[in-house]
Amino acid sequence: MPLIFEYDEENTGYVQDEDVKIDLPQELVRKNLPLPNVNEISVIRHFINLSKQNYGVDNGFYPLGSCTMKYNLKINEDVAKFEEFKDIHPLSPEECIQGALQLMWELEQDLKEVTGMDAFSLQQSAGAQGELLGIMIAKAYFKERNENRRKIIIPDSAHGTNPASASMCKCGIVTIPSDVRGNMDINLFKQALDPEVALVMLTNPNTLGIFEEKILEISDLAHQNGSLMYCDGANMNAMLGVTRPRDQGFDMIHLNLHKTFSTPHGGGGPGAGPLGVKSVLEDYLPIPRVVKFDGKYKLDFSKRKSVGRVRAFYGNFGVLVRAYAYMKSWGSNIRKVSEHAVLNANYLLSLLKDTYELPYDRMCAHEFVLSAEKFGKGSALNIAKRLLDYGFHAPTIYFPLIVKEALMIEPTETESKETLEKFTDALQSIAKEIKGNPEMVAGAPYSMPVGRLDEVAAARRPNLRWVPVAK
Amino acid sequence: MQIRFTKEHEWVIVKEGIVIVGISDFAQKQLGDIVSIELPRVGDRFKQMQPVGIVDSIKTSSDIYSPLSGEVVEVNKDLIEHPEWINESPYDRGWIVKIKPSNLNELDTLMTKEEYDKFVGET
Amino acid sequence: MNYIPITDKDRRDMLKKIGVSSIDDLFVEFKPTLPRMLYLSKPMSELELLQHVRKLAQKNRVLKYFVGAGSYNHYIPAAINHLLMRGEFYTAYTPYQAETSQGTLQAIYEFQTFICLLTGMDVANASLYDGSSALAEAALMASSYTRRNKIFVKEGLHPQYLEVLKTYCQGANLEITSTLDDNTACVVAQNPNFYGNIEDLRALSEKAHSVGALFVVCVVEPTSLAILEPPSSFGADIVVGEGQSFGIPISFGGPYLGFMAVKDFLLKKIPGRLCGMTKDSKGRQGFVLTLQAREQHIRRERATSNITTNVALTALAATIYLSLMGRTGLTRIARLSYSRAHLLFEKLKGLGFQLLNDKPFYNEFLVKSPKPSETVGSALLQNGILGGLDLGNDELLLCCTEMNSLQDIEKFVSIVDGVKCR
């Protein structure tokens, strides 16, 4: 497919052409704008044809572990496009934005309910930014107490954003191995607790798809040590209406609205990463907060102990609208989401665990990790690529790092029993293919617009943009 | 003098008072195709076994540790354009840094070739 | 509404295969159980939800905007939404499996290219959250590259961007200072600045380089790049900014589009995703996420940044916008925005408004009102107009785009004319 820069056409023109004199010093004025002119019909065809080389949840099953690729409700798209949401300037006076503020306030209340937390900041653009904020808040909290705590404890199954966020805040990481049941090893955890530990950062259920059995004991130990407990809420889809992170002992949690709350992934965002905290930490949240006073909604800019802003304006409002619509449509039935997420995962696990290896023999939560190690080194990659030929998107591979040839599978609640069984058939067929014809599987995929790409060349001799040909 | 190895798979030889450092053939095989390297700067000082740089393959990223304490006097800048030399020629063209050592006695703490071969045989 | 395709019979069969008798058995390990029923509203059908949200939306009021300050009301061509709403684009995940994601990947490559062409820089990433966090990431990158921890910020930076920069710097133990010396990691300048000023930044750029600091240019209104010399021409090492002006609705502040472009020597330090062109074994051209070893999922605590989810869909919107506009269209947008702003100013000057910009301006300018600014503001508001950002002291920050018609400007001026002086 050609690049958009290879077109040279008459452009369509969307606004009027007026004769305008630009009165600026010559050295500041642009001499050449090397953008292509493309007519609308060519642009439409270009991007429609690109879309045909893509795969979304709308195309088929997308079992990426820890991504929660659930169906994105179309009604959410329609309400997000109401003129009164999309055409509102963020600096409008409060009397003109009561609807937006009310939506944010009500969403905050619902998120507080499902997590048990006392306050939420909706400003963060993604889970990673939620983590960053959480660590900054922990630092501020301990600074106020004159406690020098710079260490963060994470399990070895932690997502890479956890240590990366710690590093952005100049905190050190202590990694605790997982035990034979897939829990964080509580004895090694006890040994690691010292007066320098600020935060214990856990994903629950963890990235193995397993609920931390000793979570209450871990929280108690952490709190006795004077440390705070942070929940990476990426796996909240297993717990809605079932158990609350606050009751598990967490002091902070970030949620991923683009995972649990069905806002679309968009090919890599935008998302939103609200951060919920217990009241003792509320004053550290970014400003402004949305408050309700005397029947009206207001933006409260009073600084208190706020760590500051993490972005201009108020956050990814368009994403918040979609999450709000999702929460309101499920309402008090929200538990059904987690019930079926966990049901689907356990069912799929029961169908696959004899063909592949299950490293931790426990009931899973909303996702599970299998190992393809018995099929040889590199088999997880080959299985993933071969699945594309069967019309499925691959699961997450090689994560978490503690399982060799890992396949992390999360079906979500929006998939049917038939889809799960078709997926099982595909994986079982591939297992046979790997045994009988490993070279064929190693050469997959065959039915995509391209085969496996030369990633080494792409990294050694990066070509990251088109360059205009000198005339 | 003979080549020595660290537990983290760096090799070191001494030439006219300067030590030359790279990573072993075993290491480059483990890493796979190397695509990128982060080098230290001339003048940087390191203690023994402190990380001096990072070597990246497609799916992994590994620290390179200094076998001896000292000051960086030269880095192999060509590796930025040609990271594949570490794979193709880890002991020759793929050398990584040259260090002026502050204490050559530290060499005694490192493995000889026989000890290293046994070490990786067991790994 | 029920977005769960599992029937009662399915449930029974599945529980049987799993080997448990009820759904609750699946949750035995989930402790502690809920202390009480959750206080959530009654579930809603699609029709009820639509009515409910519409009522909420109607409590908002869409105004005629004469304000920018980081959020610019530009015209969005109809074609953009039709393309963005392709399920293959907006319901896709990050393109880690390249063979099935060539659509997203080629679009990212095109986005990266557009940003480089506009800014004159060598390499751009696939997007960051928004302009303010992109600026913060640039400061962290500059600090890591130079191994220094002071940041010099030229006056005129958007106040909220400065707040975000402070938050990130505090977290990373960096200091924002007013001295430029050999502890300075980078010098940050917004252009056009918060007040709309267009400045010649060459001297500042040279000063930064003379102390070994990097020069960071922040572009909050990037349609200006259609008529202004690109930052590469005056020595920028890093260009960051806000791409919302490129086909993204103002949307009460988000989601927006952060972009970052750098010179080649910073390639290995740039945060965020990068998409590269390469070939498969049959020689077919394709695209793939590359240099991933820089990112959090591989470098973990040694990554420059923790960013994972970025804003791929708004980046796609910008790519489509720039494709539709082209050089001719974007230039028109910029010239119209410039022209409308200058027309508004001329007319206000006739009413006694005083220009406070001491440099030429693009589409935003600061004026001192001869009449009380609160009164001016409320008179305009009564007529459905948001008359700029009131900075206090009767100073108004006004902005125009191609969306402000000549009639809009006439109406604005006549309302202001009708407001009594002190």
- What's the CATH class of the largest domain in chain A, please? Alpha Beta
CA-based gyration radius of chain A: 25 Å
By CATH, the architecture of the largest domain in chain A is named 3-Layer(aba) Sandwich
Strand order of the largest sheet of chain A: 1-7-6-5-4-2-3
Order of strands across the widest beta sheet of chain B?
1-2-3-9-8-5
* Mean of pLDDT of chain B: 93
Q: Name the CATH architecture of chain B.
A: Beta Barrel
Instruction: Using the coordinates shown, work out and report the CATH topology of the largest domain in chain A.
Output: Aspartate Aminotransferase, domain 2
Q: Find the structural class of chain B using helix and strand composition.
A: alpha+beta
Q: What is the percent of helical residues of chain B?
A: 10-25%
Mean pLDDT, all residues of chain A: 96
Q: What's the total helix number of chain B?
A: 4
Low-confidence parts of chain A: none
Give me the Rg of chain B, rounded: 13 Å
Count of beta strands of chain B: 9
CATH topology name of chain B, in short, is OB fold (Dihydrolipoamide Acetyltransferase, E2P)
Verbal overview:
The complex is a heterotrimer of chains A (471), B (123) and C (422). Chain A has helices at 40-51, 74-80, 83-86, 98-115, 127-144, 161-168, 186-192, 215-224, 317-330, 335-352, 379-389, 417-436, 438-442, 455-460; strands at 119-121, 151-155, 172-176, 197-203, 228-232, 252-254, 275-277, 289-293, 296-300, 368-371, 396-397, 406-409. With 471 residues, chain A is of the alpha/beta class. In chain A, strands 1-7-6-5-4-2-3 form a seven-stranded mixed β-sheet, with helices on both faces. In chain A, helix 6 links the parallel strand 2 (151-155) and strand 3 (172-176). The longest helix of chain A has 20 residues, at 417-436. The radius of gyration of chain A is 25 Å and the shape is globular. In chain B, a hairpin with a 2-residue loop joins strand 2 and strand 3. Chain B is globular and about 35 Å long. With 123 residues, chain B is of the alpha+beta class. Chain B is built from four helices and nine strands. Chain B has a six-stranded antiparallel β-sheet. Chain B has helices at residues 25-31, 78-81, 84-88, 113-122; strands at residues 4-5, 10-15, 18-23, 34-38, 45-46, 51-57, 61-65, 70-75, 97-101. Chain B starts with a strand and ends with a helix. Chain C has two domains: 64-71 and 326-417, Aspartate Aminotransferase, domain 1 (Alpha-Beta Complex), CATH 3.90.1150.10; 78-319, 3-Layer(aba) Sandwich (Aspartate Aminotransferase, domain 2), CATH 3.40.640. Chain C is of the alpha/beta class and 422 residues long. The longest helix of chain C has 38 residues, at 312-349. In chain C, the strands form four sheets. Chain C has a seven-stranded mixed β-sheet, sandwiched between helices. In chain C, strands 11-12-15-14 form a four-stranded antiparallel β-sheet, with helices on one face. In chain C, helix 3 (78-84) runs antiparallel to helix 10 (312-349), helix 5 (102-119) runs parallel beside helix 10 (312-349) and helix 6 packs across helix 7 (159-171). The interface between A and C is large, with 192 and 188 residues.
